[in-house]
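Example (one chain per record):
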Amino acid sequence: MLSLQSEEKIRLALYVQKAALHFIDASRAADKCQIPEEVIQAGFSIDPDELASIVRSHDLKRLESHGGLEELARKLSVSLEKGVCPREISNRQRIYGLNKFVEKPSRPFLMFVWDTLRDLTLIILMVCAVISVGVGIATEGWPKGTYDGLGIILCVFLVVLVTAISDYKQSLQFRDLDKEKRNIQVHVTRNRNRERVSIYDMVVGDIVHLSIGDQVPADGLFISGYRLSIDESSLSGECETVNIDKGRPFLLAGTKVQDGSGKMLVTSVGMRTEWGRLMVTVSEGGNEETPLQAKLNGVATIIGKIGLAFAVLTFLVLTAQFLAAKHGGITKWTMDDALSLLNFFVTAVTILVVAVPEGLPLAVTLSLAFAMKKLMNSRALVRHLSACETMGSASCICTDKTGTLTTNHMVVTHIWICGEAKTVECNRRGNALKSSIPEKAAKALVLGIFLNTSSEVVKGRDGKTEIFGSPTETALLEFGLLFQKDFDAVKRECKTIKVEPFNSVKKSMLALVALPSGGLRAFVKGAAEIILGMCDKIVGKDGESVSLSVEQRKDIANVIDGFGCKALRTLCLAFKDIENSSDDSIPDSGYTLIAVVGIKDPVRPGVKEAVQTCLAAGITVRMVTGDNISTAKAIAKECGILTDDGIAMEGPDFRGKSTREMKLLIPKLQVMARSLPLDKHKLVTMLRKELKEVVAVTGDGTNDAPALHEADIGLAMGIAGTEVAKERADVVIMDDNFKTIVNVAKWGRSVYINIQKFVQFQLTVNVVALITNFVSACVSGS
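Predicted structure:
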């Protein structure tokens, strides 16, 4: 992640260059530059620079002059439905370039040697060594007089060599890790198949699918989507989001999807993108010194000053003793007298050398480098060096539930429909379940699942069905496929008019579709108690809609609580028929409840033991989740997080407390359910600033970014995490496993313990040697 100073440089560079770039682009357009022969022979009809400049300059007129999106796609020899043919990829990369940026050259090894030699401690040692060699040759001759000085020089050489090699390897490791971090997997359509590809393998002409939290991987044009809004602050510095539609179809690499979903046509990649051109002019800032290194360097400096004071004092004492015993007064000096003073100076230098703990910087470097290597082997990507140290002193972990404590592979195990609760057997086909549900109710259920989803069901090249989407959506679609195998057929029959993607505030997703029989129907799904409150009807035992009585509402609420007590994530699905209207707004009341679905997400193996390890080490584990209170409590008890004297509460209750009430409540708070991102942020802020705890926070969504930034150490999920969350985090947990978080804490403590032991040993030796040499020199004069 770029530093704040680098971000400012980028923004300034953008403003300075934009006018010049647009002027150049306009000049090229005016000249109507010829399409290179190489481009024509490759089967394309538009110059790469001309194509890139259209998006970069946000020039709608030039886009229209090329015939608009469809004509531009034709010039790129790509179908907006089929996507790029895999055999054309190498040809497109040859003409339009690779999706890679020119990287700043890595620092050479000699630069690390030079940086190490500039250390104050080593400079003092080198000066002492030179003086020692000079004095030794003068007093003892060659080669005997050089032994002490050469010994010091050899020690300095070893320290410089080991430190420089360690730092150099560490820089190479960070470079590799950073490259891995930037290797985002994006969803593209190729040859009618939707598949995941590396951002580095993307080519001009690819059809890319975007959803909330994604990073836009290249410059491109909007094809279709729902309420797509983009955060361009990384380029423009403006915090307001930009709404993308047919009237403003331009998408820039490096920006973030703030809301909605959509598809884009890639028009330029790599160094031809706006982001790539700016990267040429801006170099990234260097790494800052970590807190532990700063403290230890401070200790070394203080000890060096004490050693210098003792050295000066020793020289003064020995000189005073010599002058007091000197025959002939202080006016007459011989060569022997000068040699005696030189010997006193050598003694003082020796005391100074003994006092300086030259091994401290090396100990820190080796400990951190070793810990980082082990953490990478444990599937933890350390993005900031200080994270190793900070995690070692963490006193509290605020963790998500889904995907971190649980496996993040959900399946529908229970359903309540037509007044009856049914168990779904995972290992059996859906024929028995399908036959037990009225046809009308089953059809409404399938439509509610298939038409109100942001996920897709596709067939891979091997013929196997694959679902692209969140774990919850995947579980629902797998369940829906038990009733209706052809997902695309249902989607083709009904035209989707409007979709409101899932939102962490509303905790629901809505869709408005036109039915083949005529009329409109709105579908909604989401948090069970919220959707239940939007309903006034229910699908009855015969599949028809009937009024929802107060008694039935209580019974359904009990079903929801019962599912929650079984550690199930509960969702409700509902619909509402609407008369044809010019207004495409989706209603928020008057729905007919179709079903209550219970989705199981099993606890990961080893999580309970990992939680017990944290508690035994004095680290409090708190669960912060968007699930309902019953499900959250059930999972928390299964993991060992919620104890008999612990408190579990919902987000709305927490945010309604005063600061004083929160300070009394938080020490016993172990579970927060139905929480908003701001609730998590408030909890982290209170823990850090009011209770003075060192807090680690896990997060996977874009909305978790504020809490990750506020925490002492942010832990983003590598699999389920969005790019925004990963950029805000200090450590990326590559396998999304809570056990890995515990390993990070273990190695963090290991760093502190190892350095503490070394400091204890080093200071003991140095202080004893310092006092012994000082007393000996003052008493005996040698």
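Caption: The longest strand covers residues 219-231.
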